[in-house]
Design goal:
With about 210 residues, the chain is of the alpha/beta class. The chain has helices spanning about 5-15, 55-65, 90-100, 110-125, 145-155, 170-185, 195-210, and strands at about 35-45, 70-80, 80-90, 130-135, 160-165, 190. Strands 3-2-1-4-5-6 form a six-stranded mixed sheet, sandwiched between helices.
Length: about 210
């Protein structure tokens, strides 16, 4: 996503924010649903994802820049192992720097990365609103945990809402995993293969998080 397009998208999202909008009939501000959130950003750096990595990182930067200033983020980059490249922080510069740090490997430990991130949220988050934003095709060939164990983790009493941005066409198993993950946690899957689809996904995702 070109920088100029990202800036335009940021401006459009902020104009729609319930924190800045006014009720044109009464002049009263609407109820504020935009409570602070603890958000994990997970970026799949496996070989199949590399051609789209630059574009999806720019999309995630837009999510960060249009979020509630009080929101805290952490960043997990993963390929054959997950890496916590930035722990919880409200410093947008640190978050964006971590997003740009690839962890290129031969395989994909998708289940490990999501499971570890869910545990990290439950144990370390400051806020009650827990969100995971995952950029991946759902493929896994390196994890130590199974998909069954992952879904058990996501069904814990304190568990995140999971949103998935899918920038490449997943195989049938990956698609089923992503759809199930989003459905069971109250999240959403965005199949965003083109720049316009990614822009619409980011705008909708920002609104979804504000309204949780």
């Amino acid at each position: 996503m070109p920088i100029s397009l990202r800036r335009a998208l940021i401006a459009a999202i902020l104009l729609l924010s319930p924190l800045t909008a006014q009720n044109t009939q009464t002049g009263a501000a609407p109820a504020q649903s935009n409570t602070a959130a603890s958000i994990g950003l997970l970026v799949d750096n496996s070989k199949s994802m590399l051609p789209s990595r630059k574009a999806v990182v720019e999309a995630l930067k837009t999510v960060v820049e249009t979020s509630n200033p009080a929101d805290e983020f952490f960043v997990v980059n993963f390929s054959d192992s997950p890496y916590l490249d930035q722990d919880f922080s409200t410093d947008r510069g640190l978050i964006e720097k971590a997003l740009e740090k690839p962890s290129i490997g031969r395989g994909t430990a998708f289940y490990d990365a999501v499971g570890d991130a869910s545990v990290h949220l439950r144990q370390g988050a400051r806020f009650k609103k827990h969100v995971l934003i995952i950029v991946s095709d759902g493929d896994d060939n390196e994890s130590h945990v199974t998909s069954q164990r992952l879904f058990q983790e996501l069904q814990q009493p304190v568990s995140p809402v999971v949103y998935c941005i899918v920038p490449v066409t997943p195989d049938s198993k990956g698609a089923r995993i992503l759809d199930k993950m989003a459905k069971e946690t109250g999240g959403k899957v965005y199949r965003a293969y083109k720049p316009g689809e990614r822009a619409r996904a980011v705008a909708d995702l920002a609104q979804q998080i504000r309204n949780l």
